[in-house]
Amino acid sequence: APVSVSVLTGATSVCDQIWAQTCLGYATATVNLTLPVPISITLSANRHSVVPSDNVAEEFSERYTYTDLKATVSFEDNSTRDMQNDARMSFRVSNKCGSFDTSDSLRRFTVVTTCRTSSIYVSASLSMGSVTVTGNLSLGVEWLTALKLKLYYQNAATAYDSSELRYRYNCSTPSPTFHELKVKTQATLNTGATAFIANGAAYTVAGGSLSGSESDSTQTLNVLAPGAVNITVKAKPNPDSISHSTSLVAVAEPDTYTFQWELGLKESTVHTIYGGSHSTTPKLLYASGYLETVSDSDRPNLIAYASSDVSTVDVSSTGVLQPQQNSIDFSSLNVTATFCDEQSVQQDRIYANLKPSEPVDYDIGNEYGLMISPTASADQI
Known about the structure:
CATH topology of the largest domain: Immunoglobulin-like
Strand content: over 45%
Structural class: mainly beta
């Protein structure tokens, strides 16, 4: 059977006797086992950057307070062995920036909450007999250095750069309301990395209020009355006392915009089955360049729709075109959308040409435009 030999911690060689059975009987043999000399340590980690706990940097993607280390020792006989949890292996970190513990088969390094050194060094040292070898590994440390409040229009994508907050519409009915701005907080780390944060932002507002889930990086600013509006955000937790503020003045005057209405028709024809419909898109183009699509829920209160021939194409309270029959004569119709401030958009030369449908085929003549194209001139019809 193979000989089993154990070595005491710190030993480089052992001398002992073993029993051996031969055809002539039992005998003893002296064995002197000498371990190969270690020549180097290679340190590796499953991540090369860590963030202190209790820091907003933890909210960034793929950021952790720890990394797991492997210490691979090379010996003079060209063999290697992972020895990170061997009792003869010791670990240190520069600037007293962390601690070490066992994590399954690896060695876990956890950075301390107060570490503010962007580059630290972890070292591993192995002593076997009179020989000591050392390996080093550089790790990065990231932490929060700045916060910045950013304001956006209602779509949460178009930046709101004005210092004034005005009414969304120039209407007396319904009652005017201020733009509902979206508020985000951009966090910056010492490495220059940026991200919008949610749980790590604590807000206070004067002259208005914020609504939205704490786990959502986008909040909605609600302002009900003219006056100064001040927003402040602080890091949460905030060991480095980081904050940012921004201010607006809510003015009881309407913003400047142009009302638009896009039908989205091909060749100006409502081409769908009988009983079907076609959605349209009312928009407001503000002087800042922001283009807002009026929501379905707001349309009945803000926009009045009309058709010159409701028996052919009707328009719902949300601007949906509803064909009732084919355009049966040689003329077209028009549809109109009037905003609550009296801006009006009229779309002319609109046709209805229904697609085939069961149980009756309503598709007669041309697919788009007039159902039947006249060959005579207009004054002959």
